[in-house]
Amino acid sequence: MSEQVRIAxxxxxxxxxxxxxxxxAYVHRLTGRVIIVSDEALRAAERGTDxxxxxEPAELEDAQAILAGRGDYLPLPDRFEIDEYRMMVxxxxxxxxxxxxxxxxxxxxxxxxxxxxxDAVHRLRLADEWYAQRDRGYEQVAREWCxxxxxxxxxxxxxV
Length: 160
Fold this sequence. Notes:
By secondary structure, the chain is α+β, with helices and mostly antiparallel strands. The chain contains eight helices and five strands. It is 55% helix and 12% strand.
């Protein structure tokens, strides 16, 4: 029986944080490699052309492999699954100082909430605490996602 591939937790976290509306990170379940691919590369791979990518043939190869992978490539949790807004709400609720808690909670309402929240935690000198909690939240999402997909995580391993 072959040994289960172990995936570096740091690579998963980096892939999760790198994602955007135009970029998706995948894990190759057979090798444990985290691959970051733009939507542009996936579209080019679907059409069989690399004219949009210019000097990124490796990304096109990754995109082609993802399209042909038949389930060997899993997209990492996206921003909706990560729910950083919920993390911010939870953080605000745990602030001990009532005035600070109110300021940070108020920052979370309306357009521009992410920027106002970050400004408030920096102004109140709570940024280190916020980023530590945020990191723990991302790690929890990553571990739960790996468990749900039957993937082994190696916390001490990271690609360098």
